[in-house]
Design brief:
single chain, valine N-monooxygenase (oxime forming) activity, iron ion binding, Cyt_P450_sf
């Protein structure tokens, strides 16, 4: 159980690090998040349908193996 939790966080950290290396993609994802969700509330599961850029980043991370 702990290894699974650790691997998930490692994957999230890896995705964020890769996005930092690509400022254009990071800016696009941040803009999408600010526009669709806003800064005043946390992301909800119902928001995920509309976050196409962020979903693409996650799918690419999973496709390429991540951490």
């Amino acid at each position: 159980m702990i290894a699974t939790f650790d691997n998930t966080w490692n994957s999230v950290e890896w995705v964020i690090a890769e996005m930092i290396d690509e400022p254009r993609i990071l800016e696009k994802a941040a803009s999408e998040l600010d526009f669709l969700v806003g800064k005043d509330r946390p992301v909800q599961e119902s928001d995920l349908v509309h976050l196409t850029c962020i979903k693409a980043c996650v799918k690419e991370a999973l496709r390429s193996g991540g951490a």
